[in-house]
């Protein structure tokens, strides 16, 4: 008998590469995520491993994020981002006599310098290699995911579209990690019954679904979501436990909302004079977050209170102890109720830890340490859990459609502002699927030059269509500040698809246009042409 808890983090950023400008806000989404989430997370996990603290973590690194981790241009720009942030820290230290914020400014300077040293000297900018080291030591399980974070249930309207996302995502995983994945992270934790067959056909053993997707299914097993279920297609599904996740992530009651923690929005980049930020912003005229924040969420008589690391540390101690105690009590109660080897799955966006919640990485470290000290339960990866229980027969599961988006289903991606994306994507998916079927039927009769030309056109159209399918764009269209960029990006990829379609049908083999389109988005450069082959 064992009591098990699993923490699953989803790390994803859409493809945001803009070499045509020196720096831009959208690329900073990537750089800030690396600096505020991934570098502190790796530093913490490697520290625990070095001290022989037992822990297991499951991490999804989305294919677009992996592609950007590998991109040499973006690696250089991440370093440039760190360097300009360090220059701003130095300016802040120098003006400490005026602001009275010298201690905090020096702490930021020390932190960013330490992270830069890790990025450059310890890992040579190769974060994938650092994560592989943790995987090889048995501390980390890395999952595969859809190529561009497409919302798979909606893409299943044209099954070949979902199939291409899954296949390209698994291909990217194998290229980066040298082996096939066992687990698959569903973008937005979005599931539909038709996905079970697709994932199982592509060699996937398990995935995670929302708890209500299991609990509202026909005749749900009484032990859900604390044991995995097996679908009719043989896919094992773990239920994401709402109670345990809510303690951390709840907008109203979650730990990050404590007034002792750092205020995310009180950022130097939003408050300092524009002329002071000139070197940091470069040619941009838009304010940007810098990661330098001096205030905590608590409001006093004279406005926000200064951030106090010692006060935040006390909050971390309380919250990490509460989380570990709650999981221990929850698992003990489940075991007492007769559930053998129960597992509580807690799944979050990785950006919550370090980026949105500055203290979040320290929270995870304390949770791992306290769990190791107390021994009330253990942290496991889903694959480890399944291997330890390989002789068990899991209850049948028929999860219903669900997601972790607001409302629990797909409303965020099908509202008035953004449903046009689904219509445009579906129209082109049907067109591409039909063309690939025709090409497969006739290619043996084509001249070699014509066949190669059409294959390359299919490759580029598949890539541009997948980039348009990213769930991020429809989500960002709900947010006024980012709506214009999201709409522009979606139209760009759809337009690229249409222009390549014209090249394909006009047989303009010598035009050189395909080279231009390939260069626009150098992601998944060796994409197979047959990802859209007929789905069975």
Describe the structure concisely for a colleague.
By secondary structure, the protein is α/β, with parallel strands linked by helices. It contains 21 helices and 11 strands.
Description of the molecule:
The chain is an alpha/beta fold and 536 residues long. Helix content is 52%, strand content 10%. The chain folds into 3 domains: 4-140 and 253-378, 7-stranded beta/alpha barrel (Alpha-Beta Barrel); 146-240, no CATH class; 417-532, Up-down Bundle (immunoglobulin/albumin-binding domain-like). It has helices at residues 25-50, 63-70, 72-94, 96-99, 102-122, 127-136, 152-155, 159-177, 195-201, 211-215, 242-249, 268-271, 278-281, 309-336, 360-374, 382-388, 419-442, 448-468, 471-476, 480-506, 513-520; strands spanning 4-11, 57-61, 140-145, 183-185, 206-210, 229-230, 236-240, 295-300, 303-306, 343-349, 378-379. Strands 1, 2, 3, 4, 5, 6, 7, 10 and 11 form a 9-stranded mixed sheet that branches. Strands 8-9 form a two-stranded antiparallel sheet. β6 and β7 (236-240) form a beta hairpin. α3 packs antiparallel against α5 (102-122).
């Amino acid at each position: 008998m064992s009591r098990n808890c699993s923490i699953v983090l989803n790390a994803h950023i859409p493809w945001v590469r803009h070499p045509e400008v020196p720096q831009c806000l959208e690329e900073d989404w990537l750089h800030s995520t690396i600096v505020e989430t991934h570098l502190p997370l790796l530093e913490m996990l490697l520290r625990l491993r070095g001290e022989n603290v037992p822990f297991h973590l499951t991490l999804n690194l989305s294919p677009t994020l992996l592609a950007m981790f590998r991109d040499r241009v973006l690696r250089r720009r991440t370093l440039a981002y760190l360097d300009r942030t360090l220059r701003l820290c130095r300016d802040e230290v120098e003006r400490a006599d005026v602001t009275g914020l010298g201690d905090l400014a020096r702490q930021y300077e020390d932190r960013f310098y330490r992270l830069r040293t890790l990025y450059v000297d310890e890992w040579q900018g190769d974060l994938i290699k650092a994560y592989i080291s943790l995987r090889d030591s048995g501390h980390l399980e890395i999952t595969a995911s859809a190529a561009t974070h497409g919302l798979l249930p909606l893409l299943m309207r044209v099954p070949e579209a979902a199939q291409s996302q899954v296949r390209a995502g698994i291909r990217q995983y194998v290229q980066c990690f040298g082996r096939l994945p066992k687990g698959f992270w569903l973008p937005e934790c979005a599931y539909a019954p038709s996905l079970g067959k697709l994932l199982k056909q592509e060699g996937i053993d398990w995935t995670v679904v929302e708890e209500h997707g299991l609990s509202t299914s026909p005749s749900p097993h009484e032990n859900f979501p604390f044991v995995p279920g097996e679908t009719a297609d043989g896919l094992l599904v773990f239920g994401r436990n709402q109670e345990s996740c809510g303690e951390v992530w709840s907008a109203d009651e979650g730990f990050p909302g404590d007034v002792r923690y750092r205020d995310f929005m009180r950022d130097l980049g939003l408050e300092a004079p524009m002329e002071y930020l000139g070197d940091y912003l470069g040619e941009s005229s838009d304010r940007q977050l810098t990661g330098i924040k001096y205030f905590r969420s608590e409001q006093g008589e004279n406005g926000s209170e200064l951030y106090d690391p010692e006060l935040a540390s006390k909050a971390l101690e309380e919250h990490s102890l509460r989380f570990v105690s709650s999981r221990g009590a929850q698992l003990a109660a489940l075991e007492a109720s007769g559930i053998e080897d129960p597992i509580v799955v807690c799944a979050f966006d990785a950006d919550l830890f370090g980026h949105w919640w500055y203290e979040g990485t320290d929270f995870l470290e304390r949770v791992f340490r306290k769990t190791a000290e107390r021994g009330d339960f253990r942290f496991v990866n889903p694959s480890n859990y399944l291997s330890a229980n390989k002789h068990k027969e899991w209850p049948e599961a028929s999860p219903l459609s669900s997601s972790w988006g607001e409302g629990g289903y797909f409303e965020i991606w099908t509202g008035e502002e953004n449903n046009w994306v689904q219509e445009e994507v579906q129209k082109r998916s049907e067109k591409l699927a039909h063309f690939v079927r025709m090409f497969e039927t006739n290619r043996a009769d084509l001249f070699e030059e014509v066949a190669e030309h059409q294959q390359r056109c299919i490759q580029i159209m598949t890539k541009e269509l997948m980039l348009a399918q990213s769930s991020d764009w429809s989500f960002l269209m709900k947010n006024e500040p980012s709506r214009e960029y999201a709409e522009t990006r979606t139209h760009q990829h759809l337009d690229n698809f249409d222009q390549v379609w014209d090249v394909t049908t006009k047989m303009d083999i010598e035009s050189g246009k395909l080279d231009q389109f390939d260069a626009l988005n150098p992601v998944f450069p060796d994409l197979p042409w047959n990802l859209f082959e007929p789905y069975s």
